Inverse folding.
């Protein structure tokens, strides 16, 4: 099954830890990262556009900050973009975790997954993100 599952644990009214797991065509991964609630709300707002803008709806979280403002070490990156001329969408999920070895050792665990979905599934996911941000149930995006 092609699926993305998100669960948010608020730390306070501004920040929380996002847990993500994904499976695509037999491959899978999971990770977590800290996000500002406002960033997740903005991501949810972008998902409501129909059609999605040529620039993909994307969000990423991790450790540190690079000069461009992105996390230096990305633990979760989600990108959803138009895929074909028939209205299909492509979900790209990048998941990584802190290596269990000392810093400097080249032993990172990382998964890059992608799967197709449609606007109806995306809208159900977008709606589920609202209660999820209040510490509710998972938000699930199912592929086609």
């Amino acid at each position: 099954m092609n699926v993305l599952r998100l669960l948010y644990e608020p730390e306070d009214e501004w920040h929380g830890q996002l847990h993500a797991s994904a499976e695509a065509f037999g491959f899978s991964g999971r990770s977590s990262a800290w996000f500002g609630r406002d960033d997740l709300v903005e991501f949810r707002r972008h998902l409501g556009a129909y059609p999605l803008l040529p620039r993909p709806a994307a969000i990423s979280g991790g450790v540190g900050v690079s000069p461009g403002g992105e996390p230096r070490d990305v633990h979760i990156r989600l990108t959803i973009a138009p895929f074909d001329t028939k209205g299909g969408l492509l979900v790209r999920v990048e998941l990584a975790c802190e290596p269990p070895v000392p810093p400097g050792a080249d032993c990172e665990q990382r998964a890059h997954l992608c799967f197709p979905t449609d606007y109806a599934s995306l809208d159900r996911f977008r709606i589920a993100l609202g209660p999820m941000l209040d510490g509710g149930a998972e938000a699930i995006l199912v592929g086609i």
Summary: The beta strands are 3-10, 15-24, 27-36, 57-63, 73-82, 89-97, 109-117, 139-142. The chain has a mean pLDDT of 89.
